[in-house]
Specification:
517 residues, alpha/beta, 2 domains, eight-stranded mixed sheet, three-stranded antiparallel sheet, 13 strands, 46% helix, 11% strand, globular, binds zinc ion
């Protein structure tokens, strides 16, 4: 009897819990599906000793805290120049990095130290539709599959609050990694549309190469990296001045001299920095491991000295993401489409990637390689074009080669729903992106790159006028710069044209001088 009573009680309680959900779900008739933004790395703060007097934000740290922690590096660097004692400098540097980031490390099961907590996100309003978007952030260190479980709970809360069963998702950068894990765990039954913006769906070379110790700083790449970031300043005249300054310093050989010093540091301290900072801290974070592309993964596990006994739990998490999520990207995306979810992929290109690793020539959005964000495009190195005799790899009846001949999209997993934005800096958007995304969100049917004249597969980003143009064909550097200035009249593009002209003159004079001598 007691047993029956407890069963009845349990059923009643279960219904009591479920009823509000039933009552709320699907009862809003506004016709506007709520939008959820699955944010990028760093969206959720990671906090040490929260609620105590020692509370400190570990990520992203306040500039003030970073300066305080790095203060001892300055006298040590001065001493290094005088004594050339790299080991002594290394002691100070490594202590500082461990002080700043050491507590971020996860244990052998991929769990956080209990003293370190992270910001939790919950939808806080029932208002939806229009320009409104719910914001989902998370602790970037953790296994993206665990984060996907949190996202699932978050979407339930959104459904309850809004009275809509379905959502639309925009995932930015690492948000795409979380979203792919979500698809692997739950499918996309209640998701109408997903836009993946600059997401490392197949990884990013900077993570793969760092985790294989392929550390390298290239001067030209560093200069281009600085220059590529300038349009994001949204202060055109200042951008042009900074551009000219960087070019002048480069011509004067300043960067060569600086990098000579950095080279000394790399040669003398690389092994110690890996063994004493990178491996014990960043090598334990599944979030960072999810960025490692397949060709770097197994060798990376070896290089980062993952221990199959003491770190078995962590390795199981890494392997699940790598082989069951990243490794099944095509299956997951095509499966989502088959279940009626519209999938859109947006990748940036022609930006200089992080100039710290050997893969610095890969075209990218500055952070994620175009080939990985687009799930498989064939890309020529930055600044160069596919060879003249190159023919499109697949689907020869449809044109998938960019007008500037930098990209062949035919090798993408979803070539017909993958867009390429030239000169788009990683996760840096303007109103033009908003209008584009709204157009995609508004369509019930899956749109393709052939459906909208204003949004062709290859679009030139214009941060000044906050819009896009079709990518133009290329001829020679001067004419291309001139055309660019004509399309997007800005001080920055003017400075670029002047630089190209000057460089051409210098090259011409130099060549003739050499021939004459
Ligand atoms: Zn509604």
């Amino acid at each position: 009897m007691k047993r029956i009573l407890s069963v009845v009680l349990a059923v009643v309680m279960a219904f009591a819990v479920m009823v509000p959900g039933f009552a709320a779900a699907g009862n809003c008739t506004c016709g506007e599906t709520p939008t959820v933004y699955v944010a990028a790395l760093g969206s959720g703060s990671v906090i040490l000793d929260e609620g105590t007097e020692n509370e400190r934000v570990l990520f992203r740290p306040e500039t003030e805290d970073i300066l305080k922690i790095l203060l001892p590096v300055v006298p040590a660097a001065v001493q290094l120049v005088a004594t050339k004692d790299y080991d002594k400098f290394g002691d100070v540097l490594i202590d500082c990095v461990n002080e700043a980031f050491g507590m971020l490390a996860l244990d052998g099961d991929g769990n956080s130290d209990p003293r370190v907590t992270s910001e939790q996100f919950h939808p806080d309003t029932a208002e939806h539709g229009g320009d409104r978007s719910y914001y989902f952030g998370y602790d970037f260190r953790m296994d993206p599959v665990e984060t996907a479980r949190k996202l699932h709970a978050y979407l339930d809360e959104v459904a309850e609050l809004t009275g809509h069963d379905d959502v639309k998702i925009r995932a930015s950068s690492m948000g795409g990694v979380v979203m792919m894990s979500y698809i692997r765990l739950y499918g996309t039954k209640n998701i109408e549309t997903i836009i993946f913006q600059n997401c490392p769906l197949l990884g990013t070379a900077v993570a793969g190469e760092l985790f294989n110790g392929l550390f390298e700083i290239n001067k030209d790449a560093l200069v281009r990296y600085a220059e590529c970031a300038l349009p994001a300043l949204e202060m055109d005249f200042l951008s042009a001045v900074l551009y000219a300054l960087v070019e002048a310093l480069d011509a004067a050989g300043v960067f060569d001299a600086l990098l000579g010093m950095v080279d000394g540091l790399i040669v003398n301290l690389k092994d110690r920095v890996f063994d004493e900072c990178l491996i014990p801290i960043f090598g334990t974070l599944p979030g960072i491991w999810s960025f490692v592309p397949d060709e770097y993964y197994e060798s990376g596990k070896e290089f980062m000295k993952l221990d199959p006994t003491t770190q078995a739990g962590l390795i199981a998490k890494l392997d699940f993401y790598h082989y069951e999520v990243q490794g099944k990207a095509e299956q997951l995306l095509r499966g989502a489409q088959a279940d009626g979810t519209n999938i859109y992929i947006v990748a940036g290109y022609n930006m200089q990637r992080t100039p710290l690793v050997s893969a610095y020539m890969e075209t990218s959005d500055g952070t994620v390689d175009t080939k990985y964000a687009s799930c498989g495009a064939t890309c020529d190195p930055i600044g160069s074009q596919l060879p003249e005799d190159y023919t499109q790899a697949r689907f020869n009846d449809i044109d998938y080669i960019s007008p500037d001949r930098m990209i062949d999209a035919s090798t993408c997993m979803l070539p017909e729903c993958t867009w390429f934005v030239k000169d788009m800096l990683h996760s840096t958007t303007h109103d033009g992106h908003g209008v584009f995304y709204d157009t995609l969100f508004a369509s019930e049917e899956q749109l393709t790159v052939f459906d909208m004249e204003e949004y062709p597969q290859f679009m030139q980003n214009d941060t000044i006028n906050q819009t896009f143009y079709p990518v133009a064909e290329l001829s020679n550097p001067i004419e291309d710069s001139f055309n660019m200035l004509e399309t997007i009249p800005s001080f920055l593009n003017f400075a670029k044209l002047v630089t190209v002209v000057l460089e051409t003159i210098v090259d011409f004079v130099f060549k003739n001088l050499v021939t004459a001598l």
